[in-house]
Design brief:
alpha/beta, globular, seven-stranded mixed sheet, 19 helices, six-stranded parallel sheet, 15 strands, about 475 residues
Length: about 475
């Protein structure tokens, strides 16, 4: 079947948090590559990948481009689900013969409820869906496809689970799909050079963080990886396909989980002369950081989450505060840039622990930060805790402007207080001389950097003003209505 893979149009400023499908904005304009769709697209002949938010496509434009396809696969998420179902219904109305399936963490956990949302939905591909979708596109009967939930005789049938992929080298490269269907210049991340390109070298994460969506729903807790030789070969191709790209980002949950492998890949990237960056835990030894830096590493995206050890223990982070501080000092000495991420509202949070995190972040003095609201997505231990302890607020995960809403609250700490903490965190961190001086120095050196930072600065101030204006518990609305 001719297959369309669709990241559907959404709110103009959609930011559902880290568990959304692909953020269209965090505090500033941001787009991640739709790699989870690009991977099966690379396996199915004559397929097409459309990333509507990044390409600024309206629903009407998507409907026109969907004509002629027999199968459409939509990536969805908990905060975007209602909107994505409306897109599916519009597609079915415009193209009645089109088969429509959903993929993503939300439908992997809630396949029956998801299919019950609309008769426009034909199936859900659960777990890792690459080979499931290949078999659907090949026309195999639904009843014979592992990992599939579908309608049959007025009810929903669930086939047995599909096993996680073990041979990651068997998957074809996604960069050919990127080259064919995507425009690298449309993808922005504030802390990465522009244009950038991101992909995965493996799936799964051995860490047990209670809030983290992907290992608990789709990827699993075993880090399954491609060989270093395969990764380096793909990066050589990526460099050839995208000579304009200034930085490559490895989006594995934790690229540094296998340090000897990461070091071997780094040495290969060093030979290619590539500037790269990746996700990392705050406990990588200095000798490995040195190898990475000497072979092109520019930036680490580090999930510190909290500056309070009890909070880290509560979420099973598996990292000590003092080790994180030593790791950060080593990065600074080696010249490695750090984008630190923090979460407010995790179990045990109080006004005092939020202040601990703010002091901790300022003390680390990382280059940039991101502060998120804790989000209890279905399928996570945090969600089960929130429901059992009645911490969960019935409000939706996104507000009527598409930005993330705080759905957790505690007897001693309201959702409004957690939300207000985000603005206070950003203000305390960035209204210091060091971050201001760093940004000004970069803007003076590079005119392109200056224009970009000025745009991002305006967007960031709008974001803070929006958080102040938005009433608590404001109504939600779907973008594709």
């Amino acid at each position: 079947m001719r297959t369309l893979f669709l990241n559907p149009p959404s709110y103009s400023g959609f930011d559902g948090g880290a568990g959304s499908r692909y953020q269209a904005r965090r505090e500033i304009k941001s787009f991640w590559y739709p790699t989870w769709l690009a991977q099966p697209a690379a396996m199915i002949e004559n397929s097409k990948l459309i990333d509507a938010p990044a390409d600024d496509l309206s629903l009407e434009e998507v409907l026109q481009r969907a004509k002629g396809f027999e199968l459409c696969v939509i990536h969805t998420s908990t905060p975007s689900f209602d909107n994505d179902v409306k897109v599916a219904e519009a597609l079915k109305k415009a193209c009645p013969g089109l088969r429509i399936g959903l993929v993503g963490a939300h439908v992997a956990v809630l396949p029956e409820e998801s299919l019950g949302a609309s008769p426009a939905l034909d199936f859900v591909a659960r777990e890792e869906f690459d080979y499931t979708l290949l078999e659907v596109a090949q026309g195999r009967p639904y009843s014979e496809i592992s990992g599939l939930s579908f309608r049959e005789n007025g009810s929903v049938r669930h086939n047995p689970d599909r096993r996680l992929i073990e041979d990651m080298d068997a998957l074809p490269s996604v960069v050919d799909i990127y080259k064919r269907d995507l425009t690298a210049e449309n993808y922005y991340i504030g802390y990465l050079k522009h244009p950038y390109l991101s992909l995965y070298t493996g799936r799964g994460c051995p860490a047990r963080c209670t809030f983290c969506l992907w290992p608990q729903t789709v990827g699993g807790h075993v880090y399954r990886t491609r060989s270093p030789q395969s990764v380096v070969a793909e990066m050589s191709k990526a460099k050839e396909h995208f000579p304009q790209v200034k930085e490559f980002f490895f989006d594995d949950d934790t690229f540094t989980a296998d340090l000897s492998r990461a070091a071997e890949i780094a040495k290969g990237l060093g030979r290619l002369g590539i500037t790269w960056s990746c996700n990392s835990r705050a406990n990588v030894p200095r000798e490995y950081l040195k190898i990475f830096k000497e072979n092109g590493l520019r930036l680490l995206l580090v999930g510190y989450e909290s500056g309070n050890q009890q909070i880290l223990n509560n979420i099973k982070k598996g990292v000590r505060i003092d080790i994180a501080q030593e790791f950060t000092r080593n990065c600074r000495k080696l010249g490695i840039v750090i984008h630190g991420t923090f979460i407010l509202g995790l179990p045990g949070e109080t006004k005092e622990t939020m202040e601990d995190s703010m002091r901790f972040a300022c003390g680390l003095d990382v280059d940039t930060i991101q502060v998120s609201l804790a989000a209890p997505y279905p399928g996570t231990e945090l969600y089960r805790q929130a429901m059992a302890n009645k911490w969960y607020d019935a409000d939706a995960l996104v507000r009527n402007d598409g930005t993330q809403s705080c759905t957790l609250q505690y007897p001693h700490l309201s959702s409004a207080e957690i939300t207000a903490g985000v603005k206070r965190f950003y203000t305390k961190f960035y209204a210091r001389p060091k971050p201001i001086a760093r940004m000004l120095a970069g803007m003076i050196k590079d005119p392109l950097e200056r224009r970009r930072r000025l745009r991002e600065g305006r967007e960031f101030l709008d974001y803070l003003r929006g958080r102040t204006r938005a009433p608590e518990g404001s109504e939600t609305a779907a973008a594709a209505s």
